[in-house]
Amino acid sequence: MSEPRPFPLPDLQHASTAPLWKAAARGEFALPRCRDCWAFDWYPKGHCRKCHGSNIDWTTLSGRATLFSWAVVKRALHKPLAPIAPYVSAIVEIDDDRLTRFVTRLIDCEPAELRIGMPVEVRFADLGYPAVETGIMAPLFAPSTQ
Ligand SMILES: [Zn+2]
């Protein structure tokens, strides 16, 4: 019999996304942004999609967003994710720039009450929230309380 595969964890040291995880550990939601034209560089390419410059820096954002789409995963196709099912996989548009979409999980929500366009906000929680303790804080989202 083979060992069960561990819960999938991100590479916290990967240069393109390490600042995201470091910010989340501080309780901040940050994405890379061009310092010349203010366009976001997400998912990071290392250069600006708009002006093609390379003057990119990580910016702390409000953490407010709008629900673009979601799926309730009742039975994880990837077995290591089974302990956290059911969970809500989602795409949110960050309010700082609606053209920038962020793939995340929704927490603290009733799936039947989710609506496209509803306001959501970042919540920092363990990546394996709530079933698996990973020790990694992740920018997850929840329906806005404001
Ligand atoms: Zn730019």
What features would you describe in this structure?
With 146 residues, this protein is mainly beta. The protein folds into two domains: 49 residues, no CATH class; 84 residues, OB fold (Dihydrolipoamide Acetyltransferase, E2P) (Beta Barrel). Helices cover 5% and strands 35% of the residues. It is built from one helix and seven strands. The strands form two sheets. A five-stranded antiparallel beta sheet has the order 5-4-3-6-7. It has a two-stranded antiparallel ribbon with strand order 1-2. A hairpin with a 6-residue loop joins strand 4 and strand 5. It is globular and about 50 Å long. The model has no long low-confidence stretch (mean pLDDT 94). The structure holds zinc ion. Zinc ion binds next to loops.
> How many whole angstroms does the radius of gyration measure?
16 Å
Shape label: globular
Helix content: under 10%
**Count of structural domains:** 2
Poorly predicted tracts of residues: none
Q: What's the total number of strands?
A: 7
Distance between the termini: 50 Å
Kindly report the spatial arrangement of strands forming the biggest sheet: 5-4-3-6-7
* Helix run count: 1
Quaternary state reads single chain
Bound molecules: zinc ion
- The assigned structural class equals mainly beta
Assigned CATH architecture of the largest domain: Beta Barrel
The largest sheet is:
5 strands, antiparallel
Percent strand: 25-35%
CATH topology of the largest domain: OB fold (Dihydrolipoamide Acetyltransferase, E2P)
